[in-house]
Amino acid sequence: MTAIVNTHLTRDSPQAVRTGPNGHKLVIGANYQSVPMTTAILAAAFLCVLLAAVQIGSIAIAIVRLRRKAPLQRGDYPPVSLIRPLCGIDNYAAETLRSTFELDYSHHEILFCVADPADPVVALVNSLIAAYPAINARLLIGDDRVSANPKLNNVFKGWRAASHDWIILADSNVLMPRDYIQGLFDSWRADTGLVASPPIGSRPLGFWGQIECAFLNTYQARWQYIVDSFNKGFAQGKTMLWRRADLERAGGIQALGREVAEDAAATKIVRGAGLTVRLVDRPLAQPLGRRKASEVWDRQLRWARLRRASFFMYFLPELLSGGVLPMISAAIVADARGWPLLPGIICFMLFWYGSEMVLAAASDWHVSPLHPLYGLIRDLMLPALFIGALRGNDFVWRGNPMQVERMRPIRVAAPLRPRLQELAAISRKRLRALRARAS
Asked: pLDDT tens digits, residue range 272-315?
């Protein structure tokens, strides 16, 4: 009887024949190319499979969530005050601001807010107001210092001047569809305290415009819609629909100054009231145009530091996000097994970023044929952004220097303390039971 045994010979090892303990011949051949699965290789394989499963699962959940349609409201929609804080001229500013005047809504007012009377956007807004005389629109100028957040200071006068019980805060670079307001109300439920929308990048120009699109769409928006699927949505300052009474009970518009970012404060206020932040079913487009590398980096670093400061436990898993870590794990396994390395990495890369392209296509978002390249560069930036968020506290928003709170380990660990105490109590109880049995 002859047994074939594969051991950890290399692919170049010669064949050998040995006699086993029972007299059987053992044929040992390198042509079987087998390598023992050490602990490190097993760990790499497990991590690769786990993260690949998370990738596919997250894509599937996001597609299902984004294709879900909210039931249309019956009857009339309520009157709304629409507040748009402005600062400077963004790409496509004329188009995004004009979309405010072309909404198909019967009863709303528009309040544009500018802090500096010399801001170049003032002339653009005045020309649009003159071009649409039938629309109830006003421009409010002034800077009320009610917080450390210049955007919130700009919004404050609009909130005070708003005539209606429902108020929308919308950034200047949001491109509003004609049924913009209806879409927000259609997402409102009995347990809702706020309806928001993440920005979806559209019309990117140039290399870095595509990189920003890869950040906004198939990375950040995807994960926001996943947590929203479990009723754990986060507010996004691009668009927020408030019922005035809800925010007034929390202390008014000034309460949004409790955090450096008003959307982080909004999330905590809504959850503190026992209500839910919901995302619209059709996220709103932000035309990007051309971007510089420094603009993309600064924006993503600012957002990373804000997430770290406001939602640290949600921020930590970002260290494992992106396709680089599973790609390295796949390369380790392929090398250990003697499989072709470069073709394997390319196939894994196409699988990883191809799934993101499926999400973008299914959601009618911008997607480039070169998305695997843009996605890879985005993911190579993620570890540096994570480290930068941990190491720094400063950032600049539209020329305004700002700062998030420094990391304090005791405060960061505070949310974990009750759970750790509970586990310690359970451990002590079990230990006493074991001692009782032993005695």
From this structure: 999 999 999 899 999 999 999 999 999 999 999 999 999 999 99
Residues 6+ apart with CB under 8 A from 199: 173, 174, 216, 221, 236, 238, 283, 284, 285, 286
Tell which residue, 167, 160, 184, has the closest CA to residue 83: 167
Contact 250, 159 (CB under 8 A): no
φ, ψ dihedrals at 137, nearest 5°: -135, 140
Calculate ∠ Cα 50-62-347, nearest 5°: 45
Q: Are 219 and 200 in contact (CB under 8 A)?
A: no
- Residue-range domains of the chain with CATH: 2-32 (no CATH), 39-62+315-415 (no CATH), 77-292 (3.90.550.10)
6-29 pLDDT, tens digit per residue, is 444 444 444 444 555 555 544 444
3-state secondary structure (DSSP) of residue 382: helix
Angle, CA of 406, 412 and 416, to the nearest 5°? 175
